[in-house]
Write a structure and sequence with these properties.
By secondary structure, the protein is α/β, with parallel strands linked by helices. It has 3 helices and 4 strands; from the N terminus they run H-E-H-E-H-E-E. The protein is about 30% helix and about 15% strand.
Length: about 100
């Protein structure tokens, strides 16, 4: 049985401020430089979400998350996953919602 012990976070993490939040499919982690550059180009506080390519249950769930964040007045930018990958010659622009 695993026992987790909660400890106090390090001071640097506790006092740190996040610039932007990015929700990205794990399959795009090798392309971090591309999507991180796009996420960093948005104003501070933007939630940058890359939507799955297919119209499956995962995409519907993430679209629901987008609508909830917008309802709570967060700045959200989305981009389809098809626009990021090895064949991309230049950085695509995300659409702000």
């Amino acid at each position: 049985m695993n026992v987790y012990r909660l400890t106090r976070p390090p001071v640097h993490i506790k006092n740190g401020r996040l610039d932007n939040l990015a929700l990205v499919p794990a399959s795009l982690l090798p392309f971090k430089a591309q999507w991180q550059g796009i996420a960093n180009s948005h104003p501070t506080g933007t939630v940058f979400i890359i939507l799955p390519s297919t119209n499956g249950p995962q995409r519907k769930t993430i679209e629901k998350v987008v609508s909830i964040l917008e309802y709570e007045r967060h700045r959200v930018a989305t981009m389809p996953a098809d626009e990021i990958g090895p064949d991309t010659s230049e950085m695509p622009q995300a659409t702000a919602i």
